[in-house]
Predict the 3D structure of the following.
Amino acid sequence: MANAVKDTIRQGESVLMPTYARLPLVLVKGQGAVLTDIEGKCYLDFVSGIAVNSLGHCDIQLIERLKSQSETLLHVSNLYYNLPQIELATRLVERSFADKVFFCNSGAEAVEAAIKLARKFAHELMSGERFEIISAERSFHGRTMAALSATGQTKYQHGFEPLLPGFLTVPFDNIGAIEKAITARTAAILLEPIQGEGGVRIPDLSYLSSVREICDRHGILLIFDEVQTGIGRTGDLFAYEASGITPDIMTLAKGLGGGVPIGAMLATDTVASCFQPGSHASTFGGNPLACAAGIEVLDRLTKSNALLENVRQQSAYLLSKLSELKAKTPLIKRIRGRGLMIAIDLGMDSLDVIKIGQERGILFNRTSEETLRLIPPLTITRSEIDRMLAVLSDILMEQSHVEA
């Protein structure tokens, strides 16, 4: 490692809190699906900021929109209206089940807003003392205390106990478990349509519709966390569309800003009416610059079907090629995915693949010690997929011989 890289990393370690297990890589530039480090080496990015850079890095049209907005208005308080916020909210309402939008800065904040709205709705419009929210094991909803309490993975919660009361987790993709968990205290069910950090776990086709039926029957709310699955990631604008049902509340973030921090919580009029002035707020939520980014991303996904069609086509191609690779190496145990959200369960430590991949110019991500995750930009091309597959194939074939 060159001295410049070592010095930069050393400086970072001296001033940044050690909350990330960072790879020894200093990135300075990006274009499309390619990132460049401080030494000038290029990497094909199959992480995309953890499903954030939906249009790739430094998309020209996104940059132009941000430039234009930055020359007009960067920030005003939510004590006033601003046009980009209204325009983005209008686009989200027109393309979803929702009637109203609340903007914030991240996925965790969007989930916090959804939890608060669900409890406010239960307090004002549900009978009895309803406040509990049921979520799923292996779910991930964010790092703030309420979102963390709703998360179904103890590894994220360790050391932050006691967690907030009023949250209950049940096995994912198990209707019977949800039925048994509902009591007179239940206010809502919070689910990811596809679990992201849980390993790209896709439920049975009937699961989400059955959960919707249970919510309707018991008079409780259904919240979909689409922070990772939303904004084209699965081949639909929102993952819930494939289920044929709609939630009462939905959270968005990640890909919505194409790299600019933004979060959103969407709801029906009936539910949203429980929020009144003073109920909830965010200083930077609906910031004109962030909303301008969201407008560009949504316009690219909705004014033409080309980008969503690219997600579907590249997904089908990538999954078929991974299946072919699976037949060649015992190190691939299972493949799961929808759209450009794909997991590969391995018979080896996935961190080894990530480290070797980095050395060979490919950036991978993982959700566990055994699970590799592929979440490239929605603009990824077939030739870029082929390049990644060639490297992945070489790594696994080499490791197969090592294992043998």
Observations:
- DSSP finds 14 helices and 15 strands in the chain.
- The two ends are 31 Å apart (CA to CA).
